[in-house]
Amino acid sequence: MKRIVSILILTIALSSVVMAQNNRTKFATDMYQAKHEMILQALGLTMTQQKQFMPLYEQMEREIYEVNRNARALANEVEKKKNPSDKDYEAAASALSNTRMREGEIEAKYFDKFAKILSKKQLFLLKQAETKFTREMLRKRKK
Description:
Helix content: over 70%
Order of helices and strands: HHHH
Structural class: mainly alpha
Number of domains: 1
Distance between the termini: 46 Å
Number of strands: 0
Low-confidence stretches: none
Radius of gyration: 21 Å
Mean pLDDT: 84
Number of helices: 4
C-alpha cells in the first residue's frame, strides 16, 4: 500500500513539473509570437521583406538569448557552490556585466543585415516596436 501511495505521489509530482515546464515553454512561445506580430504590424513589411527579415530577426534573437542564458548559467553555478573562489565570482560578474555589450554587438551586426532589407523608416520603426513591446510586457507584469 505504501508503495502504491509513493508511486502515486511521485507521478503527481513529476506531472506537475512537466506541466510547469510546458507552461513556461508556451508562455515563451506566445511572447515571441506576439512580439513578432507587433513588429510585422508596425513595420508594414511586404511579403518579400517579411520572408527575408523574419528568419534573420529570429536568428538575432537566438544569439542574444544564448548570451543571456550562458551568463545566467555561470551565475547559477557560482550561487550553487559552497565556497566559490574570487575567480568564480569574477567570471560570473564579468559575464553578467558583458551581456549588454554583447547584445549590442549582435544587434549592430544584424542592423547592417536588416538595412539591406528594410527602409530607413522601417529600421527606426523596428526599434520603436521592440521598445513598445518591452514596455507593454512590463506594464502587464505589474498588473
